[in-house]
Amino acid sequence: MNHFEYLQPTDLAEASRLLGDGPDEAMIFAGGTDMLSLLKDDVVAPRKLINIKGIPGLDDIRYTPGNGLVLGPLVTIRAIKENPTIREHYPVLAEAADVLASPQLRNLGTLGGNLCQRPRCWYFRGDFDCLRKGGATCYALEGRNKYHCIIGGHPCVIVHPSDMAVALLALDAKVTIYTPEETRQIPLNEFFVRPAEDYEREHVLKPGEIMSRIEVPAPPSGMLSGYRKFMERAVWDFAVVSVAAVFTRSGDRITGGRVSFGGVAPVPWQDEAFNRKLSGLRLTKRSVTDACKTLLSGAEPLSENAFKLPLARNLTGSLLLELAGVPL
Amino acid sequence: MARKIIKSKYFVEEDFVEVLAEVPAGGSSPLPTNQEMKVIGRPVTRLDGYDKVSGTARYTFDINLPHLAHARTLRSPYAHARITAIDAREAAKMPGVLGIIHYQNVDQIPWYGSSFLFDPHLRYVGDEVACVAAETEAAASAALKRIKVEYEELPFVVDAAAAMKQNAPAIHEGGNIQGGKPAVYARGDFDAGLAEADVVVEETFTTQVEVHNPTEVHCSVVNWEGDRLTVWDSTQAIFSVRDTVAQSLGLPASQVRVIKRYMGGGFGSKLTTGKYTVMAALLAQRIGRPVRITLDREEMNLAVGNRPDSVQKLTVAAKKDGTLSAMSHWSYGAVGAYPSGAACSWPLRTIYQCPNVKTEEYSVFINAGPGRPFRAPGHVQGTFALESILDDVAEKLAMDPLEFRRKNHATIDQVMNLPYTSKKLLEAYDAGAKAIGWDRRRKVPGADKGRYQRGLGFASQIWWGAGTPPAGCILKLNRDGSVRLIAGTQDIGTGTYTVMAQVAAEILEIPIERIQVNLGDTAVGPYCPLSGGSLTTPSVTPAVADAALQMKEKLLSAAAAILEVPQGELVYQRGEVRHTGDTSKKKTIVEILREMREQTLLTYGARNANPEGYAINSFGAQFAEVEVDTLTGHVKVIKVVAAHDIGRAVNRLTLENQFHGGILQGIGFALMEERVIDPQTGKVLTVNLHDYKMPTIMDMPEIEVIIVSEADTKISNVGAKGVGEPAMIPTPGAIANAIYNAIGVRLHSLPMTPDKILMALAQKG
Ligand SMILES: Cc1cc2nc3c(=O)[nH]c(=O)nc-3n(C[C@@H](O)[C@@H](O)[C@H](O)COP(=O)(O)OP(=O)(O)OC[C@H]3O[C@@H](n4cnc5c(N)ncnc54)[C@H](O)[C@@H]3O)c2cc1C
Ligand code: SF4
Asked: What's the pLDDT tens digit per position in A215-246?
């Protein structure tokens, strides 16, 4: 771990200024659950750490019927998990928080940090000078890649580690980005960067920019939603594959909705073709299972992760049917 | 009490050992059964429980000395390389740096047989290059990065199959097969047995490298006083640390004192003296200050041992009536870069009756961290393969798997050709089958139709763990009537303090609170064996009993002198000596000691010799119920019933602790734990507890422990066999058979992770 300066600004403008030219100069420190291990493992070495927890007003949870939910970036995962309004109106979000990490990490970890956390690829975290760290090769391609992506990869085949992002993507959330000049808002799916565009970054934030708000539209009436995360042990693990589903129904048909995935791609993933097919899909075991057969059909699994495809399909089918109350 | 010196032979961690031992000349007479006991056998809570949960207990890391310096190790980043130059001058000038050692500035100290403490020939990622002492750990870590090392990279191999090939990179001069040849064993005529058989099954099984990862990391604190060295070490073997450190430093063993009070687990990884301890001692000597060296989790996963992997090809042949006629085992496994052992055929050789057996096993060097004994070395992986194939043979014979095992029950040790002191495996089958509800088992594997499919499976276990002399215990009776037990064993977290106190409390009939136990100090305690191989309780508790029985005699003799009556007219009861006729004549322990003024009473108890002409083994069977999620491949272990013959249960609580831990560790090995190496660089990828997946408390099934044995009176006065290793041995095999019963597909490769199960289910269709 390098030596660094630890700074505690009290407003966004000051924080932004302190961030300077980018991660080599300064990085944001929120809950620190990811930052600390990045520092200790020498994955990053900023000269300054900017603790943003002293900035007031960034940990609010506000829900207005009709308008939806507004979350500050410093809202903790635990606060989301335990918020009765979120549990009632956005079960998918609360369920993603339920299965995230461990109680200690949920107490400390923030939503902003969760969306901006760095990948868990064991080469990236280890002593390897890989592509994403400025090196010349992606070691996972020819190496051990059971936990890597099956779609949307190349030249780097990470998976995005965030659970919250998958749930928020299915809810069509937007993020607000603070910049000294103007504050802008973008849809969450434009927040993440695919390796083909730039394999050294996971999100679009530029030096000095800070995620300052997350907004979730009001749920349509009768919205069903849920999150299923597959882990190799009962708790305290990242998703091998996870799926979030949000939809409305009329009778035995889906009238509209969205499914998103974690653990399959370098960014929280949506299969646009599948989402288009959702509208009108009959909620019977047969038709849902059939529809899932073509899910992620562009997938190109690596040498050790072909299992992720059936896993994603099975999880999706069972989640849709469970939410609809159709016996499996 | 008369004693004699004998040659004691016993097994520790798969090795046959002979030692000279002082033992009671008269043998031992058994203590009463547990039903007649008040303290032994009861669920007595740990004497050190409060200290541990309150944080009062001082572990090695907690030892703090004035002017303590901190050391960190520079390790090889290459799987195979030669150091061509090393320059530590810049590092030495860094703030807080006190001393740096490496191959150019310390004597060559032999290590691993043919290598050295600092060997410029580096054979794995993690091999020791240099060690720095500094004012803080951070300063030492910073200095590591400034040591300039030039390496000549050499071709490497991290896979045992590749390492066995003709032109593989040679890790040692004699080639990559340890000892140059396989270990072989044969009895009877394998081919004749095969010819007689009606059913022959041949299958290949593989198991992964498992890393111990005890909660407490390896740590030593060392302090020189003149030419005497004190070492606090987190170790399972204080005496072997003393001897290795003394030998490495060229000191008489008497000048090295090793202390270990509390420990947070070792599982075999702390049976061997670490290079880090010697490096710390060398640094401390140079800088004239005490040094603490603590390994981090990454080093724990690189450099302090592991369970070698295995590829095991088994052939099992049986007759129509279910009798085994021939078995063979051919295997190889990677021991890492330095000598260890990958053999795993012992269960196949002994546990079931079979006249014709042959085994051939290769321990193979690869460029990875060296293996070390791991909770039942060889047996866990060997039992998984054996019990899996036996279930397949039973199915071919259309026999119930349990019936098949009963049919081939062995009554003698077929390798040694000796009877067992006791063997209650059949009783374990009955009790275990009843508790799990074996008759619920699906007769057709994979019979369940829905998403979640359940199955039952079981596996048997054999292990040694008889305990052995020499093991001594000093019992000191103080003036206030309190008792101090002093022994050179160590409590590695299993409850040794408590079980020893129980035995003394039982025999002296005094409250356990009046007993204090001092263990883990080579300068104080009489020699006891290392704490591995499930040796501790069966070795040391008989010595305590011996010392306590002698103390009773001493108290009678003292009371006779005080009361001026013949000793024969006195009896000892509940901490009191009383006259059989005149009830007014009595003396409590405290009264006797008071009359003896400043004197304390001392006795020395010794473990008896094991009986000649017997094999001593523990046995057991574990029954697992699992539920497989066929949509995800996830296996949930619902329940494990552990029915075992372990002689006398000395403490029901610490005994259950061993089973809970062993079974959970077995679940980890069966379902998730695996050291993963990058084939391109030879670097270990699983160097933290997120990537190296161990089960959590949420993965814990319901566990029912049934002990089918009473004291084994042939072994010792206490009659206990060890439980540490038996608790884990059959778990993976039982789970594997339960999974097969649930889904009807046999998994041949551990860990049985969801991806393998999902792909196997897909192939089944
Ligand atoms: C053992 C372990 C298990 C875990 N398991 C899971 C899991 O199951 N699921 C999961 O989703 N996550 C998991 N995590 C990741 C965990 O770190 C996050 O979930 C957590 O929410 C991160 O929040 P934080 O506030 O601690 O982030 P920090 O560590 O403070 O920051 C993380 C990153 O985000 C940046 N950042 C923080 N806030 C902002 C902001 N407002 N604007 C811009 N950039 C910002 C930081 O600069 C840093 O790069 C796990 C972590 C560990 C250590
Ligand atoms: S997947 Fe990405 S982060 Fe991992 S090794 Fe490849 S380039 Fe590096």
From this structure: 999 999 999 999 999 999 999 999 999 999 99
- Segment (H or E) for A7: strand A5-7
Contact status, residue B647 vs residue B720, Cβ threshold 8 Å: yes
Task: Note if the pTM is more than 0.95.
Answer: yes
Residue B9: per-residue pLDDT: 85
Rounded CA-CA distance B498/B521 in Å is 17
Q: E strands of B51-162, at which residues?
A: 69-75, 81-87, 97-102, 110-111, 115-116, 121-122, 128-134, 148-153
| Cα–Cα distance for residue pair B174/A304, rounded to 1 Å | 35
Write out the DSSP string of B348-372.
HHHSB--S-EEEEEEEEE-SSPPP-
Domains (range + CATH), chain B: 3-58+467-606 (3.30.365.10), 63-154+213-303 (3.30.365.10), 170-206+306-410 (3.30.365.10), 411-466+615-765 (3.30.365.10)
**Amino acid identity at B404:** F
Predicted pLDDT at A49 = 98
Which tens digits make up the pLDDT trace of B629-657?
Answer: 999 999 999 999 999 999 999 999 999 99
* Structure tokens that stand for B670 in this block: 């069966």
Question: Among B401, B457, B194, B181, which Cα is nearest to B314's?
Answer: B194
**Distance (Å, whole) CA B39 – CA A185:** 71
From chain B residues 745-764, the ones with a CB under 8 A of any chain A CB are 753-755, 758-759, 762
List CB contacts (< 8 A) between B753 and chain A: 232
CA angle, B120 then B126 then B132, to 5°: 75
Interface test with B, best of A36, A105, A233, A328 (most B CBs within 10 A): A233
Give pLDDT tens digits for B133-190: 999 999 999 999 999 999 999 999 999 999 999 999 999 999 999 999 999 999 999 9
Q: Are B512 and B44 in contact (CB under 8 A)?
A: yes
What is the per-residue burial (b if ≥16 Cβ within 10 Å, else e) of B143-162? bbebbebebeebebbbbbee
Query: Could you read off the pLDDT of B326-344 as tens digits, one per residue?
Result: 999 999 999 999 999 999 9
**For A34-56, how does the pLDDT look when each residue is reduced to its tens digit (9 = 90+)?**
999 999 999 999 999 999 999 99
Indicate the pLDDT class of residue A327, thresholds 50, 70 and 90: confident
Q: What is the pLDDT of residue B272?
A: 95
Residue to mutate (ligand 1; options A25, A114, A159, A164; most atoms within 8 A of CB):
A114
Burial of A2 (0-12, 13-18, 19+ CB in 10 A): exposed
CB B600 within 8 A of CB B620: no
Cα distances (angstroms) measured from residue B565 to each of A12, B557, B579: 92, 10, 8
pLDDT in tens, A257-267: 999 999 999 99
Q: Are B333 and B342 in contact (CB under 8 A)?
A: yes
Residues of chain A found within 8 Å of residue B690, distances taken between Cβ atoms: 120, 236-238
Domains and CATH numbers, chain A: 224-324 (3.30.390.50)
For A138, nearest residue in chain B (alpha carbons): B680
Which residue do the tokens 């690189």 mark? Answer: B302
Taking alpha carbons only, the member of B418, B417, B427, B429 closest to residue B460 is B429
Distance, C-alpha B608 to centroid of its chain? 23
Mutate to test the pocket of ligand 2, among A132, A147, A197 (most ligand atoms within 8 A of CB): A132
User: A122 vs B755: CB contact, 8 Å cut-off?
Assistant: no
Has B725 been annotated as catalytic?
Answer: yes
Whether residue A155 is preceded by a cis peptide bond, meaning omega within 30 degrees of 0, is: yes
Please report the DSSP string for B397-417 in residue order: TT--HHHHHHHTB-SEETTTT
Mind giving me the DSSP string for A22-66?
STTTEEEESS-TTHHHHHHTTS---SEEEE-TTSTTTT-EEEETT
B295 within 8 A of B304, measured Cβ to Cβ: yes
